[in-house]
Fold each of these.
Amino acid sequence: MNEESTERDRTGSEKDGGLFNAVCRQFDKAADLMDLDPDTRKILAATMNEVTIHFPVKMDDGRIEIFSGYRVQHNDVLGPFKGGLRYHPLVSPDEVRALAAWMTWKSAIVDIPFGGAKGGIQFDPNGYSASEIERITRRFTFALGNTIGPEYDIPAPDVNTNAQIMAWMMDTYLATVPAHQRSANVHVVTGKPVGSGGSLGRDKATGQGVVYMIEEWAKDNSFDLGRATFTLQGFGNVGSWAARLLKPFGSTMVAVEDVSGCIVNEDGIDPDELLEHVNTRGGVAGFPKARPADCDTFVCTPADIFIPAALESQITAETAPHMRVRLVAEGANGPTDPDGDAILRERGIDVIPDILCNAGGVIVSYFEWLQNKRSEFWDLEEIDEKLSRRMRDAYSRVCDTAKDCRTDWRTAAYIVALRRLARAYKDRGIFP
Ligand code: GLU
């Protein structure tokens, strides 16, 4: 199962000067409100390193195809660069830049010693065989060379990438280091298969974190999750885990959208049955226990909670006015563009922002990285307990900051992150 699933084409922010521009707008709002030191502001408004690689790969039929891959390192003042690698036809330098910055804020909010990075290869893996995807992955990893490293920049799964792809990346990277140093370098990627140095609980981590955040919101609002309804966009790793983990609370999933189409059933769609269907059919379309619907119907479907768990810029000036929910719990990165965000705020719809809500993945990546470094293997109970504590603590910090600064949750989340980053720059100063 891939880390996240894909969704309909992005629109909103692209019209407004790109996704990184959207990040800058969110950042500026928080920086103004907290009066961020102007020098720190300049540093954080730019990425540190950007690598673009065009590389050839031999296809199964002997042809050569050229691929474009990117790795953007936004900031490493709090620790090594960290962030996923996605395979998608819409991957672009602008998108990867935005996603890298979000990783910096995310790690800072949940207080893990990582910076932010992101990477991607611009292609649709659905059109390629497993052995072609393996060669694409290995060739890109080789070309990245020392751009990645276990104490420098640590990739992980993201949209359309998974534990298998991480195993290929690790194996390729390790082939380039001296034999006696290999076992000391397996933490060069996280999200690996459990049998190859991966962590228990990494697979479900992002979805699990989303559910912890929804639980906290429900507590704050004296809301009974046992009678909650929710709609879900994306049924990849994040969405399918969030849906399955909400089931024991008694919450009812009433509509799901993915690249294959939309399905609706007010009486409930069972996430386990849907997963079986998606595993055989490749998408939610055609699920027999729900009726097909169009995208507009999906957006308008009333529910208590909407979980976007696909791509960026899905909640926009076009869709936000039609949404009939109380809470948006952002499982995806950047699902709400600045215009959509403003409309949600005006309409009184609560938002648990992406950089808090979906941080479970990178938190358990951190646990995997620590286990590898210490040659330890933690049990699932320990991982769940540690994940829960970190996410809930971060929730409280964001909640308190929103109250103290009288601002919305996204801005509050940025302020939590920026305070931590500003502190580090103040302590360290700038070389020379
Ligand atoms: N791709 C995930 C994210 O966007 C996980 C990143 C990681 O584990 O490094 O947060």
Amino acid sequence: MNTMLNPTHDPAARSWLASANQRGGDFPIQNLPFAVFRVRGTAEPFRGGVAIGDQVIDLARLSQAGCLKGLALDAAKAGAQTTLNALMAMGPAAWSALRHGLFGLLQADAGASVQQAVQACLVPQSQVEYTVPAQIGDYTDFYTSVHHATNIGKQFRPDNPLLPNYKWVPIGYHGRASSIGISGQSFARPKGQLKAPDAEVPVLAPSKRLDIELELGIFIGQGNAQGEPIEIGDAENHVFGICLLNDWSARDIQGWEYQPLGPFLSKNFASTISPWIVTLEALAPYRVPFVRAGGDPQPLPYLDSAANRAGGSLDIQLQVGLQTRRMREAGQPDAQICRTSYRHAYWTVAQMVAHHTVNGCNLQPGDLFGSGTLSGPTLDQAGALIELTQGGKNPIALPNGENRTFLEDGDAVVLRGWCEKPDAARIGFGECRGTVLPARG
Ligand code: MN
């Protein structure tokens, strides 16, 4: 588990690129997250890039520029491809070598010739478009917030909200990778089978209870051979990094279809991720202890380690904003409807990896895990409308006088994430935005 701080975490470090030193910025020199991009509106090939300030470092150009060498250069070349899978497959030593190499090129005292060479590899973020950064072979969605599981459970099963396995098993289901899209996407409201509680038979109709799920996405780096579980002590070495994930959900389709095999068409019409993947090395200053409330069972030994207890959780601040069509037309920004932190999750990233592979299941580079909806302990920390509005009974009031129970056509939802504390650099995730379009005729 990579908990050690090194010179790339120094909160006093500055870059020669002024926009990287701006207070409150998402992408200082201590962050260096990865995306796949190209200049917007061109037919250029997509390639990997790294965020610094308001720029993207083009890894394709940088790997030709002659300023990296050794493992850092090999990693930059792997990251220059149209997906990050090859870089992901190289493992933590390569990711770290590239991070340290980039840090050296970007820090304030880098030589003039280095600055000039790197300058030629920068593209303004305002001019680029992004794509899904990996060929995602498999997508697994977990359910790691006990608060979400309890709140949702109350609505689907009032007398039996939290099932007895929850505190023992990191619950998950296999989702669908083909419909994962990048921030900025819009999608049509899904149709599906809906059955009102008092109706005899279901009808096929557009979902009336379209919801969000505030999640983090965890990209797997190196995989494992089938039959060879990843032990918890090694689990984070298989994690490339973390992004924001909105797992859009149609609650009415879900309510009718979910038993006995779990969510299906209520979840697989669209999921949106943020373009930037923040590495675990960048997040090292924001580790917090993993603790179980008194009276809860301790994890089984394969889900437990001293390192996981000491620092397996991450204090990532999360926010959900909603912007209706009317707000957008009036030039009003999105309004915050939820604020929480990833630290409240019941299971850690390392526990998800160890559990997923304990039966011998093989992970592959570029696989994506969803954390599950990250609701915190109080109602204003709930990461889904079904919780925030108590199943649609208590609408949310928006600043312009509109209110919402579930999403309406034209609504845009923006997830944001960042880490911040006095003795460390701010590490931002950028944003994850998606817009609901009317159902197709
Ligand atoms: Mn989900």
